[in-house]
Amino acid sequence: MNLAPIILFGYKRPRHLQEVVESLLRNPLAQESELFIFSDGPRNVQAEPAVAELRKYIRTISGFKKVTIIEREKNFGLASNIIGGVTSVINQYEKIIVIEDDLVLSPYYLEFMNGALEKYKDTQEVVCIQGYSYPIKYSKPVFFLRGADCKGWGTWKRGWALFNPDTQFLLDEIRRQGLSRRFNMEDRYDYISQLENQLKGTIDSWAIRWYASAFLQNKLCLYPCPSLLEDIGLDGDATHGPSAILTDTIVTDHPITLEDIPLEETEEARKLVGLHMYRAMPKRAKLKRLLIGRLGH
């Protein structure tokens, strides 16, 4: 199998990134995989020591087929760093696996990701392979959701070609097509607000635009069940802060079987994910959703 290169993005959390790398190296396929590390530049003087410490560590990394380090001279910010890094590598290698500096991986992660990227490489309906999965009680080892996701994910050049950074276009199209409720997982998670905040400039997210781009094209993302990674960045130091729906991740202790399933959104799994999102939603947000629903908005 032709293995996908791994792209690792880091900023100023050297201890987190070291845990990620150590978990990667516990994957048997790591030594056969190329690793690209994108180190973003410091945003301010206060960030300089941590960025320097991270860069000192990444220069010691070994155990992979090849390690390529890209140190940004200035601060790109998370969105621009990831968009630029993914684009540059995928144009050369046709497929990629992407991880950030807060994701600790199962020893079976690379096996699953490379297997799925190979299995669905010519399947136009599928544009994303996801390593993280929600802690749901679903009976099968894999399922599809509409759109794309952002935690320990992979794609092909043809999939990334669908990425549209134009937030206004994405938001307008979702509303024009009457897809807001579906986009919001039947109003169980407020993705629309993320697009609105991206438009206002109060957040800088590539991930919401990746999800919206694939969603509008009616493409699918493959998920494992249970998860092949856990998020260790929920300590308040992450760029976008903690997320309640990730705090109770269940990570697999066995390989995930790439079982054949219909090329369509898995409705049973979607309902379970939506229920999990609703349970994780703060009470105030639930009351707001209920009120909006009763008013017919």
What does this structure look like?
The chain has 297 residues and is α/β, with parallel strands linked by helices. The chain has one domain: Spore Coat Polysaccharide Biosynthesis Protein SpsA, Chain A (Alpha-Beta Complex), CATH 3.90.550. Helix content is 39%, strand content 16%. The chain is built from 11 helices and 10 strands. It has helices spanning 14-25, 48-58, 78-93, 109-119, 157-160, 167-176, 180-183, 191-200, 207-216, 267-280, 283-295, and strands spanning 6-10, 34-39, 66-71, 95-100, 103-105, 126-130, 142-146, 153-156, 220-224, 229-231. The strands form 2 sheets. An 8-stranded mixed sheet has the order 3-2-1-4-8-6-9-7, with helices on both faces. Helix 6 packs antiparallel against helix 8 (191-200). It starts with 5 loop residues before the first strand and ends with a helix.
CATH topology: Spore Coat Polysaccharide Biosynthesis Protein SpsA, Chain A
Mean pLDDT: 91
- Strand percent estimate: 15-25%
The low-confidence runs, each spanning 5 or more residues with pLDDT under 50, are 236-247, 283-297
- Which descriptor suits the 3D outline? globular
- Please state how the strands of the largest beta sheet are arranged side by side: 3-2-1-4-8-6-9-7
Number of separate structural domains: 1
By CATH's scheme, which homologous superfamily applies? Spore Coat Polysaccharide Biosynthesis Protein SpsA, Chain A
What would CATH call the architecture? Alpha-Beta Complex
What's the helix count? 11
Q: What is the string of SSEs from the N terminus onward?
A: EHEHEHEEHEEEHHHHHEEHH
Distance between the termini: 50 Å
* Radius of gyration, whole Å: 19 Å
Largest sheet: 8 strands, mixed
CATH class label: Alpha Beta
Query: Which range best describes the helical content: under 10%, 10-25%, 25-40%, 40-55%, 55-70% or over 70%?
Result: 25-40%
- How many β strands by DSSP? 10
Find the structural class using helix and strand composition. alpha/beta
